[in-house]
Design a protein that fits this description.
Layout (H helix, E strand, L loop, with lengths): L3 H15 L2 E9 L2 E8 L19 E2 L2 E2 L14 E5 L6 H4 L12 E5 L8 E2 L6 H14 L5 E6 L1 H12 L4 E7 L5 E2 H11 L4 H5 L4 H11 L8 H11 L3 H11 E2 L12 E7 L7 H11 L3 E6 L6 H4 L1 H15 L4 H12 L1
Parallel strand pairs: 5-6, 5-8, 8-9, 9-12, 10-11, 12-13
Antiparallel strand pairs: 1-2, 2-6, 2-7, 3-4
Helix pairs in contact: 3-4
Length: 341
């Protein structure tokens, strides 16, 4: 019997290819491979080969290496990384968003470890490992500077990537996430949602559990036939043991939790009806992150705002990316240098 959720993937892959993206598997280290959709100029006509990009932000002796860059070629576009959340892999998560960005930016859509075709033999389950793998993949592709967009679990990975690699990350756009999942935030969130643990909530095994997850993730009450829920459970919740370990690896003790000093510009794009990480948490986080952080709430949207209200989400994301890419190069270079010091 056809799995209707799996059946949409060939269409999504066709749309990705039509948009000029290609899938590749990047070996980060022996035993660790990250699957990623990348601009087609990285892939040879024979397929599979990785060709380093000429990143628009790469400098040589203080000046851009104009000899290596095509002025109006695809390699000269700014680079944007889209990092998915916990319920689905990259192309499924960003299916309503990549189309409005691909004509202006070089898009990179990775599958995090234990999602899609990405895997590792490492026992490490921390968001730091995910961030290191994304950074290593971008280095293999020759990308020296990028803007990072993260949703939910992917937002935590994005924050960690910006913290550890300020030389790579120019800016962050995050929705439905926190800088770190502390014991306090986790306990308060689970109590508010009536769940005993994040594993119970985010890794449902029954139709009832999946329906509960979707109902608290979306502002609008949507009806789907039970067949859809069954297909979704089979298609999207594989690698259960490893993903449960990823959830356990997220939790940070309250004593160890610190808000890093980010030099990057940060945009928090939030569903005003988000029940998992509510707008009040986003407001508090904005205050903690300082003057370089902006908050934009989207009404009548929940945790899955990029799915529920993709046009409003895409407009705000597009404005922010246009803004950070219009900043004077001197200002951006100063911010990157300050981040490294």
């Amino acid at each position: 019997m056809v799995n209707f959720v799996e059946a949409q993937k060939p269409l999504l892959k066709w749309l990705m290819r039509m948009a000029g993206l290609r899938p590749i598997d990047i070996e980060i280290e022996p035993g660790t491979t990250m699957h990623m959709w990348v601009p087609k100029h990285h892939v040879s006509k024979k397929g599979g080969a990785i060709t380093p990009a000429i990143d628009h932000a790469v400098e040589k002796d203080g000046e851009k290496d104009k000899k290596r860059k095509k002025k109006n070629g695809p390699e000269s576009r700014p680079s944007v990384v889209l990092i998915h959340g916990f319920a689905a892999e990259g192309i499924v998560t960003w299916q309503f968003n990549f189309g409005v960005l691909v004509s202006r930016y070089n898009l990179y859509i990775p599958d995090l470890l234990f999602f899609g075709k990405s895997s590792t033999a490492s026992a490490d389950r921390s968001p730091e490992l995910q961030a290191r793998c994304v950074a290593a993949a971008m280095a293999r592709l020759g990308v020296a500077r990028c803007d990072v967009v993260g949703f939910s679990y992917g937002g935590m990975v994005a924050f960690k990537l910006a913290e550890t690699r300020p030389d790579l990350v120019r800016s962050l756009a995050v929705s439905g996430s926190v800088v770190a999942m502390t014991e306090g935030v986790n306990s308060a969130t689970m109590a508010r949602l009536g769940a005993t643990s994040s594993t119970e909530l985010l890794m449902p095994e029954t139709l009832k559990g999946l329906k509960t997850l979707l109902s608290i993730s979306m502002y609008k009450k949507m009806w789907f036939p039970d067949r859809f829920y069954k297909d979704y459970l089979k298609a999207m919740f594989n690698n259960r043991k490893e993903r449960m370990e990823l959830l356990q690896g997220l939790i940070t003790s309250n004593m160890d939790a610190k808000i890093p000093t980010f030099q990057q510009k940060i945009m928090l794009v939030w569903g005003e009806e988000d029940k998992i990480f509510d707008i009040e948490l986003a407001k508090k986080m904005k205050e903690q992150l300082g003057d370089g952080c902006f908050l934009h709430g989207i009404p009548k949207a929940g945790h899955l705002l990029h799915v529920e209200r993709p046009c409003a989400y895409n407009r705000q994301l597009g404005r922010f990316l246009a803004y950070v890419n219009s900043l004077p190069q001197e200002e951006e270079a100063a911010a990157a240098t300050a981040s490294l010091s």
